[in-house]
Amino acid sequence: MAGFSLFLGFIIPVAGWILYVLYSLAVNYNKAKTTGLPIVILPIDSGNPLWMAVDTRILPYFKNLPFTKNFTRFNYRGWEIHDRYKAHQEIGDAFILVTPGKNWLQLCNAETLIDINARGKEFTRPTEMLAMLNVYGPNLGTTEGTQWQRHRKITATCFNENNNEIVWSEVIRQATGMRKYWSSKSSINTIGDDVRTLSLHVMSSAGFGKSYPYQGAEEESDTQGSANIRDALKLILDNCIALVALGPKNLDKWWLPKSWKPLHEATVTFQNYMTNAYEEGKKAAADGNTHGNNLMNSLVRASQAESKEASSQGGLTEQEIYGNILVFNFAGHDTTANTLAFGIASIATRPDVQDWIAEEINEVLGDQDPETSNYAEIFPRLKRCLAVTYETVRLFTPVAIVKTSGPEPRELKVNDSTHILPPHTMIIPS
């Protein structure tokens, strides 16, 4: 009898969950059907944080099973990178991924996208979904309206020429270390990992004023665990989906795998470091010390300066500064690393482009050692290098721009057809 009760205690919640998923899927399917656009049905919402943490690990087991083609093709993060234009070529400029959570409009039409961007008050950022990024506090990525304007005004002042000089010097130092490491290898198959290290070290220097020597992916680490800010930040950024899904306060729960313990330790180290850096920044600002142009010090100074203005909405709170520091690292780390990785791989296939940018670099730098170069003098002259970067970003978009149709139905024209999007439809430009 006890065994039967245990069985019922397990099967009833599972059956209830399955029925709820099927009901939600049916509701969203009927909503999507009213648009007249092609539909692809998926069993799981790709925006579900828990699914995002395991999707690429689980999907390979379904590859060879029948009736799972769409599931394994569209139901994971970054499927657009692998699929490229193929889905739109087969299905159309616009189609909807129907899931139990939300409907996702995949859109590949320049005129329609221009129209959406022009109607910014109608098609807004999905702040409810982005709220998961409030790991340490509200930030530029999760606020909207006047609050977003306040965050934007204060944080924008931190990205200035002084901070760019720090980035310039650190990038050259890290790139020199990476070049030496690559030169010591007979072949390189760790480009992705190596540029992530470069990006991490630059973020650590520009964000916190902590600089570390470059270390290749196959070199033995000089530190273990998450005792310093670099290693803590690396663990956090490498496991950001799990952190976002569970939150830092839940990472030490007994029911989580022991392998997640280092991530919990990293969040504690990172929080403590931010707190200490914040207090140091406040003291420096109070003493009138304007030295130290790292992001944390700049945010503290800018926030305090904004608080003193009569017409101000107020500076950033301590938690908001922490939230912005983390989201800048989220946003800057992967986007920089991915752009570098794709750019290097693309240039490797184009000797003519290599010669083209080498000609410019030799002309601008001459015999000068890059490590002694001046940012303000050299960077504006590297137009070909900037063009290659822009082309890389055009071909390999670092971050998908997500919009939502908001609380009201929205009319949208795709080619020669007009469609009515149901409320809260997510929009992904392709």
TrEMBL record:
Transmembrane helix as UniProt keyword: yes
Pfam families: p450
Keywords: Membrane, Transmembrane, Transmembrane helix, Virulence
GO MF: heme binding; iron ion binding; monooxygenase activity; oxidoreductase activity, acting on paired donors, with incorporation or reduction of molecular oxygen
Entries under InterPro entries matching the protein: Cyt_P450, Cyt_P450_E_grp-I, Cyt_P450_sf, Cytochrome_P450_monoxygenase
Gene3D superfamilies per the UniProt record, alphabetical: Cytochrome P450
Transmembrane segments: 6-26
Family label: Belongs to the cytochrome P450 family.
Protein name stated in the entry: Cytochrome P450
Organism whose genome encodes this protein: Botrytis porri
